[in-house]
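Researcher: Quick sanity check before group meeting.
Model: Go ahead. Protein one:
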Amino acid sequence: MNRAVVRLRWLAAAAAGALALGAGTATAYAAAPPEISAAPSTLRPATSQATTSEAEELGARPYMGWSSYSMQVYAGNGQQWIIADQIIAQSDAMHEKLQDFGYEYINIDAGWNGGVDEYARPVPSETLYPDGLQEVIDHIHANGQKVGLYFIPGISPEVYGADLPIFGAPDCSTGDIVKRPLQQGDYWAIGHRIDFSNPCAQAYIDSIAALLGEWGVDFVKFDSVTPGSGIGDLSLDARDDVAAWSAALQPYDIWFELSWALDIRYVDFWKEHAQGWRVDWDVECYCENEALTTWDNIARLFPKAADWWRHAGPEGWNDFDSLNVGNGQMDGLTKDERRTAATLWAVSAAPMYIGNDMTNLDEYGLELLTNSEVIAVNQTGRPAHPVSTATPRQTWYSTNPDGSVTVAVFNLGRTDADITVSLADLGIDGSVKVRDLWRKKDLGSVSGEFVAEDVPVHGTELFTFTPAKNSHIGLNDDDARLDYEGDWTRNGGKEVAARSQALTVSVFDSSQGGEAPETGESNVRSVNNNGPGIVYSGTWSQSGGRGLGDYQDDVQYSEANGSAFEYSFVGTGIDWVTETHSSQGEAEVYLDGVLVDTVDTYQAEGRGVQQVVFSARDLPNGTHTLRVVKKSGQFMLLDKLDVVEEGVIDVDHVAFDRANPADAMVTLLRDPSELVGVYRDGTALDSGTDYTIDGSVVTFGSAFLVSLADGDSALEFRFRGDIRDDVHWAGADGASVSLTFSGSKVTLTGPVGPDQGTAEVYIDDKLVDTVDLHGDVRLTQQELFTSGDLRKGEHTIRIVKASGDMLRIDGLSYVVR
């Protein structure tokens, strides 16, 4: 049975016991969310967060705690896990076992309320809390913990129909605040959408927030938030609800957490209004009385983390859902998978809230949840990002305030494996001291590379790399250590990506009847349906070995309307290549967030294979995002995407005739200084011997060409781009970026171009240089400024835009003293 159906049945069963009026925001209906060194010295020690967080701004660190929902799902009869005695037992277990390590939130999920009062404000269930919910809240607070409750957008039809007065707003009632004509307010169609153009609507939400403040509630989980929750086409849009609740909760310092599978296109809005946001579907497997989760539900978070990492920080956090690693076999994971999940949550700075039964934590689960060095990684709030997601053996890393680097390796493959970590990939030129954080053990020093040996299937290792004196530390413009002031934008077509383009050399002999092939352009890159960077939302499966002529003999498919795939690319065009068939229907196509087409993949007879059903061309060269949403039909498929990239050489073939030997020439379409080299089978050819460069013309001499075998030989032209293919840029004079570091020298690296002017460089608030960033052509990775020797201690470099259309920032590096 489809999991979404299971969840809706769970929802209906919970709703059966609700009071007739519902609960102002439909929470009485118990709506279930839908399926589908040691640590660096500057990190806070993993002691009781409850004793230290009072002085911090709300959301300064990822929260730690417990949520009832995983056990509600596991038990089937979900409400037995939110009764007073159970919540008190979980609070006491946290106090005894986990609180000294920073865990402090006790969050009560769906189904806690039993109706509304005379002002349409929620009333706790008397059945669940016979002595009142306040007694439970007071017990949690007495344990030095915080308490959370669950809500969803909208207002129930019963509350709307009852037209109840709104507390504190004598001219307002609930019958006046519903959007007309009536619209659906949440994913499950439990309630009506609220009309926030009417000030009475905000007054109503304010009245509920004030009540929560009186109760002493510290946290609100706001579920079924759209765009998200499987719906991205704005047919449901809860952003007005989010803004209203955010404003209402703020005076009471109540943490506001949004759920679920939030749409990343609106990340700036989520960051403005909340302290956290769920980035994916539920972690629970809905395996009643069998397991809490599965490995697949953990593994699917890696590409989500790779997309969202740069958006998390002290103003809000990427929520991965409950970390269910504490109950042993019941977790549904192997021991290695449990540690991998704990590592992913830690290095991603995701809120570490568990969904386990805290009264029954096993020894290994306690070890995972109470490792102070791992917790310190999480609480420093520096989300890690991958070196590459193109391999199942992945390295993720983040730089810490003290210059050390947190490094996690993950074996997502099918066999045990050594995983090699290149220090250069981490931005380190020099040697490092390595500490194993799970084992709390120093491993000595390495340079060049480090090998994590025998990482088990679905296993992980977690380290801190501390650079030695005189090592160089390089930071990309995305790094959290950089502090931007002013109006800055990331990419937006202002970046230049590294590019490779293939050249086929065809060797033949015309005296033996051979012929030269036609030459043509070669700037299309095919991305298979399982390629890195494709983000799937909704319910998707893969089918391989169909033997129907699919690209690489596999496809990705979904049967659920609303399911979508999204892909961001750098280029000038893209094709969606799929199958057409009678089992398929319509899909909406969005380009850069704008609906541009509704494509019909229905074919009455037969089957179309590798069909281009949508094509975009002549886009401005830069970053674009394609999103396709299933609207109808039994299936929607993705076979591949063909990305049209800016060409960097003028032809895709050259020919060499042994009977009439002659040099072969290729014209570069990017500045020759950007050429990294020409490669054959991954090995660089010898510039000056195998080929020469004169201006923009590359010439392959006959002596090289004659050495190639008859037939086709593949060469590859590689051009550099901006570091990691991205930049930050600002258009207004006075915009600045700064870095605080301890080192003896600092260097600014970045692009020059016709649209850039000058920038002022300050060190420790003293103007030391004005650098000219103007260039006749756009060039990448230029050394723009290097300081002299700096005195011992901490320094701050600040770069300020002074003139030109824009200032681009790409990389900063410094030498460890």
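Researcher: Fine. The other one?
Model: Protein two, sequence then structure:
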Amino acid sequence: MSTEEQVAVDPGSGGNAPRSLAEALRVRDDASLSALLRSRPDLITPVPTDLTQLATRAGTRASVVRALERLDRFALQTAEALAVAADPATYGELLALMAGDDADPAVTAAYPRALGTLREQALVWGPDDRLRLVRTARELLSPSPQHPSPTGLGPTVAEATSGMSPGRIQEIVAAAGLATTHDAVSAVAALTGLFTDRGRMAKLLDGAPTEALDVLARLVWGPPYGQVTADPARHLRWLIDRGLLLPTAPGTVVLPREVALHLRAGRAHRETEPVAPAVEPAATYRPQVVDATAAGQAYTALATVEELLKDWHEGGPAVLRAGGLSVRDLKRTAVALDVSEPVAAFWVELAYAAGLLASDGEADERYAATPAYDEWLELPPAERWTLLVTAWLAATRTAGLVGGRDAKDRTLSALGPGLDRSAAPEVRHRVLAFLAGLPEGAATTPDSVLARLRWEHPLRGPRQSPAATDDLRSRLARWTLSEAESLGVTGRGALSSHGRALLGSPGPGHTAATPASGPGDKLPVPKRHHPAPLTGEVPRTPAEQAAAAAQAARLLAPLLPEPLDHVLLQADLTAVAPGPLERPLAEVLGVLADVESKGGATVYRFTPGSVRRALDAGRSASDLHAFLTAHSRTPVPQPLAYLIDDVARKHGHLRIGAASAYVRCDDDSLLNEILADKRSQGLRLRRLAPTVLAAQADPGTLLDGLRAMGFAPAAESAEGDVLIARAHAHRTPPRTAPEPVPDGPPAPDATLLSAAIRAIRAGDLASTAPRKPTPDTSPAGGDLPRTSSAETLATMQAAVLTGESVWIGYVNAEGSASQRVIAPIRVEGGFVTAYDHTADEVRTYPLHRVTGVAELADDSA
């Protein structure tokens, strides 16, 4: 913070007016300081030693930029108006800049709230007759040729003429019809008075050429700068001669701020937005229809995640050297899930965010399911859904960025680095809060959501263009609407009842509110990361989040389809599952048959290969017949029974073991057939005995080769027993879900706020408490007090007897120096035991670490 802001002298403002931001903070009560620290949590990271340090930190560029980014549209417009107002400005002057000459009633009504927000966040300080914008905010929002003001206003007459010769200023004054003066300062004041006088200014413009008025109309709403030639046209010369356009550089002129405000009827902004745009319903459905649609999507989401991880059951794609999935593997995953690549990236990232998927960390690193996936499968479907959605709400990883480019023009890959966006959880919460504010069953349009979101957070970097400021947040909002529909949080665009319960919505009939009391303020936040709340409300505790998730699961459970224990077998070697199957049935059927199509009903097809797969897994033909008979509501078709018997009759007739590998069969004619087949040449077979062939290929290659030739061999162990080939479930070591990347420091809870305010006030007492004058030992400029060991001991002992507090300088074991106000209780053994006002507790200090001691003035005890 600059020196001017540290001590801004206000002559004539009364004895009680604060002279600096630190003084303004010093007169605040605890509730006001708590609101400040809650809305700007970076100010207590770490806790300031006193209010002066708090004020200094509140004026740093990084903190001010973060605070400005969290202002809504109207509060930001108010700050922008104050940036171009006189410093200091009065309450009425700032209101006039916002409401204009016609005193817009909507602006007038919303103005106190906006100014109160700026004051609460310590961006504005001072009484109503001397309002000051924090200097850093003024610098960020003030106009310059390189960075025009967001209001479109140029510099004042005094600023634009600061480098102009006194003679030229007198010429402008005379051309404007004013009396010349004896100095440039009074001339500039006279010209400013003319431009701010509505009547005289209107009379001056009445005599302007029509072309000159057209020029002013083009510049009035900004940018205020224009180019002129060395010999400007007559109408431009008319404007330049009278100071309505002032030169700022060779060939460049600017429209003075006072002239622009006259032409704007006193408004700093072309359009003020005092009220948040409402999120209007675009369509309304019966709540039962919304819930049923959302439940169907929730079931599909669970099935998709299961199918994804089942596809990677024995080890998924390899991890790229730079991290993430390759483009080819993402395409394969999309084909397996029968979705587009962006949608496949979303499901992969969701499983990763939920801790169900990770890399195995082995030498040949691959992606696989985690042990948490097996635990997740054992949960009821509704609880599995709440786990996925809770992870989605909290995740900062953004699947929509996959396929894009990073700052170094590298492609962003699924599960790779560079996908974290700290704004994602907040945007998801706000978008769903807008839907929660609509009546039950009501859906809205993306444009309505985006308009409201842009009003709540119009600024992402004070110098960015409007297109750049909301581009990411707009994309996040659109992705949120799409992903919420895919997950079953919404149905037909409307928030479902279980979605409302998960979000902690106030319930049906609640209308969308302003950010000061919006429903999004109570949304669940990441389990390990609490972003700063929008209105300073303390985030929900983990227990409250768990209760909301349990309520959502209770509402969703009756809507999900009950798993079936049967299928319908058909004569064309297919089986139809008319709904979700019980897990044991689905697992066995998934081995015995291939999935042919999915949808409301799943169609399985039986093939020789699928039946052989079941036999390889240890099932016998009789087991398969019994299984189908028990789980089919239709008789087992004869073609299916023949298929099973035919494959089983051939299965295991050939036996393959390790020689490198061998083939043995009791039927030597079958071995002769294999040797005669040209396709077996690559296996390099030779006869060892009438019933045994040896191969130079490994058993796995030999199995695959003979199966490709149409045979059905079975592998055997060294003891001659048939090996049962069951799928090996590959799992990673225990893994934790990825940590969300916080958007700044976490919001403080009530306990931290209370302790921080107590420490700040105690530190401020220590730094500002008046001391008795001691010319020989008084510190200069806030340095630690310096006294000899004998003086320190004597003063401490005297304070014990009198019960008075003293001011000490103290250096801890790490060498950090601080000032403290203590009330000594006991001095013995080289230690002083005292009540420390700074820490608000009794502490013991080594006397050799006390640099000095000073008595407090009588009026500060």
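Researcher: One line on it for the slide.
Model: DSSP finds 35 helices and 25 strands in the chain.
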